[in-house]
């Protein structure tokens, strides 16, 4: 397996007690897979993503990517956070350039790549602006462009489209889906939007809270028609919705 999450538990200190945010989470992800982590607020989606990306050390268990234990963040594994993570003193283009500088890409090439990815997220005119001058949705698009520009193998995305209007959101869902297929990137994508997960995912990891656990893994690889208005799509969406309502103790893998 490309990404191996084995028996991961995370406990956070809360005053004198501890809160178990994740409990024995085990997950295997293949190279090039698009995985959505889906579940209610507080079920540990961001925590699991941050453990996989090396930002939070697990209290128990291990994460391996390509056979190497994850112990700190790595430029090969780009993360888009729930709160954008832009540097306020840098312009839009300088923010997008950040990872390319770390990778020592030459200046001329950097400019070209930045232009390409800003166009992809529809921000051609904003390159000289600073994050504070942009709307929340525009800031999120800068963060997406910055992560894509590095052309890393793995992309961790924490509700990247949460703040966007419905139309921009659909356009970026189309873009991310296409980019993933073209570049064979492995994407771990947190969302609480069932339709978004059905549109994007090869597999949906459905989580439950208190403590955060994997409740179901729904395999959508055989779902042929992802047109949002198609019968296939609507049936899949309704199935996931009812799975989310079900009480279940064991992790099972469903095929739609
Ligand atoms: N640094 C921390 N210290 C203490 N508790 C934390 C910390 N980070 C998260 N938690 C707790 O762990 C649980 C899981 O949080 P997490 O952010 O992973 O949830 P989430 O599924 O991403 O929720 P949302 O959909 O609201 O973003 C929550 O109950 C949260 O309060
Ligand atoms: Mg979260």
What does this structure look like?
It is a single chain. With 256 residues, the protein is of the alpha/beta class. It folds into two domains: 138 residues, Rossmann fold, CATH 3.40.50; 67 residues, no CATH class. The chain contains seven helices and eleven strands. Strand 9 and strand 10 form a beta hairpin. Helix 2 runs parallel beside helix 4, helix 3 packs across helix 4 and helix 6 crosses helix 7. It is globular, with a radius of gyration of 18 Å. The relative contact order is 0.17. Bound molecules: adenosine-5'-triphosphate and magnesium ion. Adenosine-5'-triphosphate (ATP) binds next to strand 1, strand 2 and helix 1.
Topology record:
Elements: E1 3-14, E2 17-29, E3 34-38, H1 45-52, E4 60-65, E5 68-69, E6 77-80, H2 92-102, H3 107-120, H4 136-149, E7 154-158, H5 166-183, E8 186-191, H6 194-200, E9 203-208, E10 213-219, H7 231-245, E11 252-255
Helix pairs in contact: 2-3, 2-4, 3-4, 6-7
The structure holds adenosine-5'-triphosphate (ATP) and magnesium ion (MG).
- Please report which band the strand proportion falls in: under 5%, 5-15%, 15-25%, 25-35%, 35-45% or over 45%: 25-35%
CATH superfamily of the largest domain: P-loop containing nucleotide triphosphate hydrolases
Q: Number of helix segments?
A: 7
Strand arrangement, major sheet: 6-7-8-3-9-10-11
Q: Average pLDDT across residues?
A: 90
Largest sheet: 7 strands, mixed
Indicate the low-confidence ranges by residue numbers.
Answer: none
| Number of domain units | 2
The string of secondary-structure elements, in order, is EEEHEEEHHHEHEHEEHE
CATH class of the largest domain: Alpha Beta
